[in-house]
């Protein structure tokens, strides 16, 4: 059985159809999933990926603004040491070294805007 409801949020009115289903019946579909079928099983790239043998790259986990670069080229870092501070959605997110190593390259500077998966730092 399908029921139609009107929901008002602020000054905008939404029509919502609600269908009674049990756990054993069919699937639940939203307008977003019916418009574009997305591959949910696809794995996203993690922020840390191998670039070359013996090097680790630290990638931006999200789009944002670089507000501070805490490391310098040639500096030795330990796992968990903060190397970059990324501001996204008005929050400062520390980006840390995933393992011990030496900073071989820093590809961002304070004030840079980065996109998801942009390389920030290369460790060797």
TrEMBL record:
**Region spans: Disordered:** 20-57
For whether the record's keyword set contains Metal-binding, the answer is no
Q: Which UniProt keywords apply?
A: Biotin
Q: Which domain of life is it from?
A: Bacteria
Residue ranges of every copy of the Lipoyl-binding domain listed in the record: 50-124
Q: What name does UniProt use for this protein? A: Biotin/lipoyl-containing protein
Q: From which organism does this entry originate?
A: Leptotrichia mesophila
């Amino acid at each position: 059985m399908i029921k139609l409801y009107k929901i008002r949020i602020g000054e905008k009115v939404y029509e919502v159809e609600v269908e009674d289903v049990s756990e054993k019946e069919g699937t639940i579909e939203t307008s977003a999933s019916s418009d574009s079928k997305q591959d949910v099983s696809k794995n996203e790239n993690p922020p840390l990926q191998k670039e070359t043998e013996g090097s680790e790259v630290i990638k931006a986990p999200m789009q944002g603004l670089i507000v501070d670069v805490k490391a310098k080229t040639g500096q030795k870092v330990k796992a968990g040491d903060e190397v970059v501070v990324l501001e996204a959605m008005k929050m400062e997110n520390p980006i840390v070294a995933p393992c011990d190593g030496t900073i071989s390259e820093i590809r961002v500077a304070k004030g840079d805007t980065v996109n998801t998966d942009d390389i920030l730092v290369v460790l060797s």
